[in-house]
Write a structure and sequence with these properties.
Subcellular location: Cytoplasm
Cofactor: Zn(2+)
Number of domains: 2
CATH class of the largest domain: Alpha Beta
CATH architecture of the largest domain: 3-Layer(aba) Sandwich
Helix content: 40-55%
Low-confidence stretches: none
Oligomer: single chain
Largest sheet: 6 strands, parallel
Catalytic activity: N(6)-acetyl-L-lysyl-[protein] + NAD(+) + H2O = 2''-O-acetyl-ADP-D-ribose + nicotinamide + L-lysyl-[protein]; N(6)-succinyl-L-lysyl-[protein] + NAD(+) + H2O = 2''-O-succinyl-ADP-D-ribose + nicotinamide + L-lysyl-[protein]
Strand content: 15-25%
Number of helices: 11
Shape: elongated
Keywords: Cytoplasm, Metal-binding, NAD, Transferase, Zinc
Enzyme class: transferase
Distance between the termini: 19 Å
Strand order of the largest sheet: 3-2-1-7-8-9
Radius of gyration: 19 Å
CATH superfamily of the largest domain: TPP-binding domain
Bound molecules: 2'-O-acetyl adenosine-5-diphosphoribose
């Protein structure tokens, strides 16, 4: 069989699973937004190729230099605001509409899944469009670009931080619980556009698999999860997801 045939068979198998299984969980990472022009973290041109996470994405970095951290977030916010959801994001909206139980867990903080129209979304690393006051705990949406640097809390005057999860921080326990519940009930788990190296998200697929889910991956490059997958589709999410939706709806490739 040629590689093309392998890929076609894998796509057909995935369609078959999706038709027969009502409970589906999707985990996405930065790769899904790559075709919207937003850099990934670890690939060529990725953020962590040019910047050190310890200087920009840890509580210690923020305590040391909040201005620098906010400048980086403000720059990312300006990039993301100009970006549009891509065909991969939109295909996931279609899948959600067509499947009875669908949970989208994303590591992305850009909000593009929601902007595309996805509803059942768990943003496990938070949102770049929210600010949080570590002093009084207030969280609110903030879409200002540029944002005053550094921004201060209206309620208590404290220094605001982006409401995202940084290295060394725990996920919001309520969001993690909701993710765990979806994962242990999943019959199919689809992992898309993540290098699967950041915990706990990197283990989600294995939790779902241990609870009985079939595992599929969409990514142009192999990841540590690839060897555990029942099915692998090699390529970009913006190319493969629209094909998947077409086949799912019974249309030709
Ligand atoms: P990474 O940058 O680590 O990985 C991106 C993945 O997307 C790689 O496996 C690429 O092969 C794949 N990829 C690239 N282009 C793609 C495309 N068009 N379609 C599909 N896949 C593509 O990003 P994440 O795995 O999301 O954490 O990174 C996880 C976390 O590390 C992020 O949420 C962030 C980061 O530090 C926090 O900010 C807490």
């Amino acid at each position: 069989m040629t590689k093309k045939e392998d890929q076609k068979n894998a796509l057909e198998s995935l369609v078959h699973w999706l038709r027969r299984t009502p409970r589906v969980v999707v985990l996405t990472g930065a790769g899904v937004s790559q075709e919207s022009g937003i850099p990934t973290f670890r690939g060529p041109g990725g953020w962590w190729r040019n910047f050190r996470p310890e200087e920009l994405a840890t509580p210690r970095a923020f305590a040391k230099d909040p201005r620098l951290v906010w400048e980086w977030y403000d720059w990312r916010r300006s990039l993301i605001r100009r970006a549009e959801p891509n065909v991969g994001h939109r295909a996931l909206v279609e899948l959600e509409k067509a499947l009875p139980q669908f949970t989208l867990i994303t590591q992305n903080v850009d909000g593009l899944h929601r902007r595309a129209g996805s509803r059942q979304v768990l943003e496990i690393h938070g949102s770049i469009w929210e600010v949080r006051c570590p002093g009084c705990g207030k969280v609110e949406e903030d879409h200002r670009v540029p944002i005053p640097i550094p921004p201060y809390c209206d309620a208590c005057g404290g220094l605001l931080r982006p409401n995202v999860v940084w290295f060394g921080e725990d996920l919001d326990p309520r969001v993690l619980d909701a993710a765990r519940q979806a994962l242990v009930q999943a019959q199919v788990m689809l992992v898309i556009g993540t290098s699967a190296v950041v915990q706990p998200a990197a283990s989600f697929a294995l939790w779902a698999q241990a609870a009985g889910a079939k595992l599929a991956e969409i990514n142009p490059a192999p990841t540590p999860l690839t060897q555990h997958c029942d099915l692998v589709l090699t390529g970009k999410s913006g190319e493969i997801l629209p094909l998947l939706v077409r086949r799912f709806k019974g249309l030709g490739l």
